[in-house]
Amino acid sequence: MAIDWEFAWEILPTLLSALVVTIQASVLGFALAAVLGLVFALARRSTSPWISQPVGALVEFVRSTPLLVQLFFLFYVLPQYGIRLPAFIVGVFGLGLHYSTYTSEVYRAGIDSITRGQWEASTALNFSTVRTWGAIILPQAIPPMIPALGNYLIGMFKESAQLAAITVVELLQTAKIIGSRSFRYLEPITMVGLLFLALSYLSAVGLNRLEVYLAKRHQ
C-alpha cells in the first residue's frame, strides 16, 4: 500500500495540534524531573540516614518499575483512595516522577565531580550553605550534566506516547483515532514517526548549542 500524501497533508493540522499536547506534557514533565531530581540528589547526600535511606529506596523503586505501570497506578488505583486528577496532570506527574530518579543520578555524579578544594575554599571564605551551592557547586556541576539531561528530555518526548494508555489525547493517540475512523493507519503512523524524529532532532541541536554556549561561558 503506497502512502497517500494528499491524505497525509489533510491530517497534518490535526496531528500538529496533538503534537502541542505531547510537547507540553514532555516539557512540564522534564521541568518537574529536573527539580525533583535535584531534591532527591541532595537528600541522598544527607548525613541523616532518616532522610538518605528512604529517598534512596524510593529512587531505586521508581527506577526499577516500568513507567506504564506507574501511570496505571496513578490514574486507575489512586481514585479508589479518593485522589482523582485529570489525565494530563497525571501524565505530567508520572513522567516527572519517573525521570526524576534518573536525573537525580546525573546530579549526584555531577556534584561528586567537584573537587574537594572547592568545598574547602567555600568554607575558608565563610560562605553560607545556600551561597556555596548556588555560587560555587551547582554552576560548575551543571554544565557537564547537559548532555545526559538532554538525552532524558529526548527520551521523555518518545515516552510521552505511553500517556495514551491513560486517555491523554497526545500525538500517537490522535493518530490511532484517525486510523480507526479512516481505516488508514499508514499515513497517520508514518506522520507521527516523522514528527517525533523532527522533534528529537531539533531538541538535540538546541541542547548541543546550549552545551557549547555554557562551555564558552565557563572558559
Structure notes:
80% of the residues lie in helices and 0% in strands. The chain has helices at residues 5-44, 49-63, 67-77, 87-112, 116-124, 129-159, 171-182, 186-217. Helix 1 (5-44) crosses helix 8. The longest helix has 40 residues, at 5-44. By secondary structure, the chain is mainly α. It is built from 8 helices and no strands. 25% of the residues are buried. It starts with a helix and ends with a helix.
Contiguous helical run count: 8
* Unreliable residue runs: none
Radius of gyration: 21 Å
Q: What is the share of helical residues?
A: over 70%
Could you tell me how far the N terminus lies from the C terminus, measured between alpha carbons in angstroms? 55 Å
Going by helix content, strand content and strand pairing, the class is mainly alpha
Strand content: under 5%
Order of helices and strands: HHHHHHHH
Brief summary of the model shown:
This protein is mainly alpha-helical.
Key phrases:
single chain; 219 residues; mainly alpha
Fold topology:
Elements: H1 5-44, H2 49-63, H3 67-77, H4 87-112, H5 116-124, H6 129-159, H7 171-182, H8 186-217
